[in-house]
Amino acid sequence: MNLDRDAKTTSMKGKWLLLSAALFSAQAVFAQFHFGVKGGVNLSKVEGQSFKEGFNTGYHLGGFAEIGLGKKFGIQPEVLFNQYQSRYDTSFRQVYSNAFSDATSGNVKLNYLSIPILLNYKLGSVFSLQAGPQFGVLINKDENLLQNGSNAFKRGDFSLLGGAQIALSKLRFSGRYAVGLNNINDIGTTSKWKNQAIQLSVGFTL
């Protein structure tokens, strides 16, 4: 009888230890996982023939997740609505006459659904370096500027991001530079167009 009772007691202790370990592990994982929302300013341009050099103001809105991978590293996936704006000059009509109808000089507004996937590296308790790819899908553009808008810009945009983030309690302040790696020109000329943008953001973890 005593042996059976001891075996049951040992079994119960083992189960409680396993349950405690599982709860502790779950708590540790949950402590390194956060959701949040963010928004901010894009200063963007298109690098290419007949586009003006200066940056133009747009915006971004969306959500993010923070997934801790130990004390130093983490992954930060995001889903953003990104508005990029650029300006073209007076030579646009001559260079791209098959794509633009009334091009003198003006704005090109491109709206993307973007998915950045960033690797975070912590330097201290509040400051992190960030780097990673960003995948974008063009969802609409300024149709009034284009004769054949569906073919002027490729739907896919692939960029490389680099920047930094400051975390103060639930607030997140970040700045990044986005360099487009693929040619977004889809009108059949040899000229290459690539997005570039400075992204300044404020976020809040929930």
From TrEMBL:
Lineage, highest ranks first: Bacteria, Pseudomonadati, Bacteroidota, Chitinophagia, Chitinophagales
Signal sequence annotation: 1-31
Pfam families: OMP_b-brl_2
Annotated protein name in UniProt: PorT family protein
Record domain Outer membrane protein beta-barrel: where: 30-184
Top-level taxon in the UniProt lineage: Bacteria
Keyword entries, A-Z: Signal
